[in-house]
């Protein structure tokens, strides 16, 4: 299903459904398509919002985790969202963490999946090679447990990014910013209920990262999904959505037992 991309001022976003806001932040090579199954599942009960993060639109000085967080903050203020369930994958999780630490007042819960902020392998031992389609395909497949999840369309998107010199410079700037911006000493300040959903076969932010987040973030609960890599909401959407729905239902009805 195709969703309308709205634009207000400099902000582009999808907004579907009604109810409490469920704001989804994508990662470094992410796109709206990463969340299609999640949007379709939750738009009947929640207002599902996916802002397009300006990964390549900020000036180089502001191309950082902090710069993206400021963009998200201004967007939330413009739209006046409240009682937000804020979810981020990979770099989007990192941005979500920084936002909750700086501006917790509008956030009802935090959901992280494959989040950076403590440790990540990024592209592995090297940055993307321009013009080498097979290399890009192999690196994209490493995001997932099942290589077939890296469709040709997805590989083509990453390939196009990696063949644009300015975009590659900004990808590197964001990756370095994420590595520098380690949040280990601040995570104990997070007070909102937090859900961690992790692929047991994530090689970019491996399972030990999830366990460390779980240890450091108060009021957090951790779920692992087998045969799953760095983007569970793409690779195993049914299981991911079931875990997330139980968590959100529990917040709405604390006394209810979700089976």
UniProtKB/TrEMBL annotation:
SUPFAM superfamilies per UniProt: alpha/beta-Hydrolases
Keyword Hydrolase among record annotations: yes
One Pfam short name: Abhydrolase_6
InterPro entries named among the record's database cross-references: AB_hydrolase_1, AB_hydrolase_fold, AB_hydrolase_sf
GO cellular component, one term: membrane
BP-aspect Gene Ontology terms: acylglycerol catabolic process
Superkingdom per UniProt: Bacteria
Annotated keywords: Hydrolase
Entry keyword annotation includes Zinc: no
GO molecular function annotations of the record: monoacylglycerol lipase activity
Domain AB hydrolase-1: 22-242
Name of this protein: Alpha/beta fold hydrolase
Organism (species): Limnovirga soli
């Amino acid at each position: 299903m195709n969703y309308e991309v709205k634009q207000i001022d400099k902000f582009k976003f999808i907004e579907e459904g009604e109810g409490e806001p469920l704001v989804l932040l994508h990662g470094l090579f992410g796109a709206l398509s990463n969340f299609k199954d999640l949007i379709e599942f939750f738009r009947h009960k929640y207002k599902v919002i996916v802002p397009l993060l300006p990964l390549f639109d900020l000036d180089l000085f502001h191309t950082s985790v902090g710069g993206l967080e400021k963009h998200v903050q201004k967007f939330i203020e413009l739209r006046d969202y409240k009682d937000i369930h804020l979810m981020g994958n990979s770099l989007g999780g990192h941005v979500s963490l920084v936002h909750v630490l700086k501006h917790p007042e509008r956030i009802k819960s935090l959901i992280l999946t494959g989040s950076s902020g403590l440790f990540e392998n990024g592209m592995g031992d090297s940055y993307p090679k321009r013009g080498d389609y097979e290399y890009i395909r192999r690196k994209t497949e490493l995001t997932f447990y099942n290589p077939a999840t890296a469709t040709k369309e997805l590989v083509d998107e990453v390939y196009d990014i990696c063949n644009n010199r300015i975009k590659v410079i900004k990808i590197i700037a964001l990756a370095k910013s994420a590595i520098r911006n380690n949040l280990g000493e601040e995570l104990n300040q997070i007070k909102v209920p937090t859900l961690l959903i992790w692929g047991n076969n994530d090689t970019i932010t491996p399972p030990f990262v999830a366990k460390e987040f779980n240890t450091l973030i108060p009021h957090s609960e951790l779920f692992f999904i087998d045969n799953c890599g760095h983007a569970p909401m793409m690779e195993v959407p049914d299981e991911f959505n079931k875990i997330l729905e139980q968590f959100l239902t529990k917040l709405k009805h604390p006394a209810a037992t979700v089976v």
